[in-house]
Every structure is written in structure tokens, then in C-alpha cells.
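hey can u run this one w/ fructose -6-phosphate bound, need the C-alpha cells asap thx
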Amino acid sequence: EKGGYEHFMLKEIFEQPTAVFDCLRGRLDAKKGTITMGGIDQHLDLLREANRIIIVGCGTSWHAGLLAEYVLEELCRVPVEVEYASEFRYRNPVINPGDVIIAVSQSGETADTLVALENAKNKGAFIFGVVNVVGSSIARLSQAGAYTHAGPEIGVASTKAFTAQLTVLYMIAIKLGYSKGTLSKERYQHLINELSLVPDKIQDALNEATSIEKLAKKYQHARDFLFLGRGYNFPIALEGALKLKEISYIHAEGYPAAEMKHGPIALVEETLPVVFVATRDVYHEKLVSNAREIKARKGQVLAVITENDDLFEEIADDTISVPAADELIAPLISVVPLQLLAYYTGLAKGLDVDKPRNLAKSVTVE
Ligand code: F6R
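ok here u go:
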């Protein structure tokens, strides 16, 4: 049942090229330049005319939502908010008819997400579900949706469901942006091509597993980890930190790289590994100087970089390379080494990576 892998988590990490491919299959046609999604096509007017999109989820699904906020605002010029379901549910948020809620959930059974959606639906919001489990409670409550088609996810830590959620959310944003006219034909076609290349690029990223395992052994005794990223890679820094703490029980925090100066830099000393999610994008030079600031304070710098980034290789103690991609698409690939880092760190520490202590696969109580 684990298909020859030692753990479900590893199997599911390695299934990502297939999971993303399955998610794109029958929807995205790079040659024709089309994205066909039943649930979106039927409600395109509603999405185009939405005053606001609110994305609701928990944990890793919230991280997918945060990245979707950046992407939707960039491509579709619509105001987007992303909320933790547990907060949204209790804080009496302003919800108006004409607001579209996108619910993001792997299991489709997370109690906080479910109740948050029921409340919003009662206030007249339209609920669009991005769910993995077919026929789950959230899928049934949604008025429209797109399944992620990642296949069953057994490992408690979400991996392939996350990349599949992103794939669906990106397709929605690209399709909507083009239909609104906020995304040019050229950029639309370019992003479609880039999305179609993701399965192969994830495969290349997976081929670095052996060197990531070595890094995990090297850093396994750290007490804390910091994960830094900017722009589209900021949600990936949060996700990298969450994966590491769940699986290895090492305290880890994700931050926007520039926020470092506003507090976390106080933690930097020789024993602190700082992971930079530093694939090449418009922020690159800024990340280079952030990494230099860490080195100046004797922290250890580990960086996920675009291949052949000589400058970062020179600054960092250790680097993990991923193939080049459009900066918008890069997070789908840059998250993979961080999942592997968490997995191999837990493994090095002899922990139960598929069932970390105190965690359940779906949180059906609040
Ligand atoms: C982290 C993880 C959790 C879930 C969260 C939401 O690895 O798995 O943070 O992402 O409990 O679960 P779903 O997506 O099923 O609503």
C-alpha cells in the first residue's frame, strides 16, 4: 500500500508530479491555450463580478489560500482576503451578497472550515469549494467547486494535496484574469505553458532527495529554524516551517524576509539554521542582502535556489537547487525540497513521520 516507500509521507511527496498532472489533465490544454473547468465555466460571470473574494481554510490549506491571494490579486485585480476558518467563524466578519468565498480543504471535513462556510452561506455569500475528498461535507455544502484530484492523502502532513490545491487555484486565477482582461493574452499563454511544465520540474526537484537527506542529518539537532521568503515564496516559507515542526518537532517559524529586522533577527546565532526560499524573482537582490545579514551574525544559511545561482551558492552554507520557473509558478516547485527536509529530519530523529504526536488527519472538532 505504500508502493515500496518507507512512509506514506514520502510516497505522497513523490506522487506530486502525478498529482499535479492529474489535476491539470482534462482541464489545461497548453497547445490550444485553454483551461476548462466545469465549476468555473458555469459561474464565470459571478466570479468576474465578485466585489471581493474571501479564501477560508486552516493550516496548510490556509497557506495555499495565502498564495492564491497574491496570485488572484496580481492576475485578476480583485480584492482578496484570506482568513483562518476558526477566526472567520467567530469574529462576525462583514459578508455581503456578491462576495465569493473560496473554501480550501483537503479532507472536506475540517469542522472550523465547515461551520465558517455555513455561516457565510447563510449571509448570502457564494461558496466555491477547492476540496480533495469527493463527496465530503465541504464539497456538498459548496455551490460550485473544483476537485483537486490528488488521490487519497494518508500521511498526516499535507503534501500532494497542497500542490494540487495550488494547481487548481492557479488555474482559476489564470482563467479568471484572462476572462476579465486583466491578464494579457501573451502572459496568459505563458502561464499556461509554465503550469504544464510543473510536473516535470517537480520531478527534477525530487531528484535532489539524497542531498536533502544529508542536510537533514546535518541540521537535525537544531533547536529552532527560521524560514524566510518574499512575495510568492513567503507562503512557502510559512509552509516549510509548519512541515518541519509537525514532522520533526523542531520549533520553526516562517516570516517575510524583510520582517526579520523587526524581531526575529534577535534569535540569530551560530546554532540557528535560516532557510531562504530564494528562487530567482524580482526580490532576489533583497534576499541576497537578507542572507548576508544572517551570515554577518553567524547564522547558518540554507537556501532553496534556482539552479546555477552562483551568488547565493557563495553566501549560503548549503543550497538546494530547483529548475527555473516563472516567479508566479515557482512556489509549486520550491515547496518540494522543504517537504523533503521535514520528512528526512523526522526520519533522522527516529520519529513517526506519518503520525506525528498530537495530530489527526482531519480536525473534525474545534
Ligand atoms: C498540515 C496539515 C494541516 C491541514 C489542516 C486543514 O500538514 O495537514 O494543517 O492542512 O488541518 O485540513 P484540511 O485541508 O483537510 O481542511
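The pocket of fructose -6-phosphate is lined by residues 58-61, 105-107, 110, 113, 157-158, 242, 246, 362-363 (CB under 6 Å). anyway lmk if its weird
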